[in-house]
Amino acid sequence: MTKLTVPAEEATFEELQAEAETLRTKINRFRKSLGRFFVNKQEIIDLMVISAIAQEPLLLVGPPGTAKSDMVLKFKDALGMGEEDYFEYMLTRFTEPSEIIGPIDINELRNGRYIRREQGKLPTARLAFLDEIFKSNSAILNILLTIINEKKFYQDGIPVPVRLRVLYAATNEIPEQSELAALKDRFVLKVESRSVQDAHFTSLLDAGLAAESYRSLNQKPWVEGHCSLEDLLKASRYLTFQFAHRAHDPRTGDEVNDRQQFFPQEVFNEFQRIVRTLTKEDRVFISDRKLVKLYKLFRVRSWLFSGGTVRLDDLKLLTYLGETHQQIEVLSKKVPALLGET
Predict the structure, then answer these.
(1) CA 12 to CA 341: how far, in whole Å?
(2) Does residue 223 form part of some domain?
(3) Residue-wise DSSP of 191-248
(4) Which domain holds residue 299?
(5) What is the average pLDDT value for the chain, to the nearest integer?
(6) Neighbour tally for 265: CB within 10 Å
(7) Together in a domain, 25 and 111
(8) Where do runs of H (alpha helix) occur along the chain?
(9) Which of 6-20, 152-166, 229-243 has the lowest mean pLDDT?
(10) Is 243 a domain residue?
């Protein structure tokens, strides 16, 4: 099979379709291999991969010391990404826009133009990690919403595209202030990174000592070349083509869309039932926008794990819809129960 040499953004559906199974194999090898370097974090790494392919931001929730930033850093390294394509920052209520999107260019300002020097900041990164995202102030929140929603920021009043494709954020606490509701809603999935010492005491010590040794020796054994960011972007474009494609049904002679091809009615009915249950019984807020994005995430997971058709198992993603710590805890048990798992 000929490997694509054109950028993912320019590849045709036919080119991507010819490489799709190879991409699946590479990405699955990547996620399983990376999981070996953590203790009981495979679930989160899988969600990181799914979110990256879907190009939806993922929120990591948990106390300090539960490997949130370490997973993102190793994920970036394992993709073979250089520092020029990566941006990370810990936000506070004192963080200024210049720290995130670049300082004002003084020379341009003298000429009457309000231009930021964005090199090395969020607009030029392809993968970013924002720690303590909900501690940012209103100016930063507005900038982030524009970047997440529209993939752009403003230079001298003119919208400019950003390179960002994958965004991970972290928080110790999920705030309930209404002014943060819009930003919270952009994170369809929120996964808790829990302490593992109670259940995996020995494994944690062994893995932690190994990690400290790798750091001291400047070694990165998790960089194994299984997959690149370009591979994730190819998978994303391939599935986007599929979402837009309408196939001919030889049985009825009608055109069918992606849902009719890949989302069996009985599974779709379960999806509707669980959403209604969570919204009515547990007061989980699920916006119309979030429902559409959930569909994308189901399809990405089904393609990655089983080749295409959405299964009941893929509906496990509904576990990660919690908007508060209490909801996260409740859904971790309730969604599997609703899916008939013990």
Answers:
(1) 40
(2) yes
(3) EE----TTT-HHHHHHHHHHHHHHHHTT--TT---S--HHHHHHHHHHHHHHHH--EE
(4) 258-338
(5) 93
(6) 9
(7) yes
(8) 13-35, 42-54, 68-78, 97-101, 106-110, 138-150, 181-186, 201-216, 229-244, 258-262, 265-281, 288-306, 325-338
(9) 6-20
(10) no
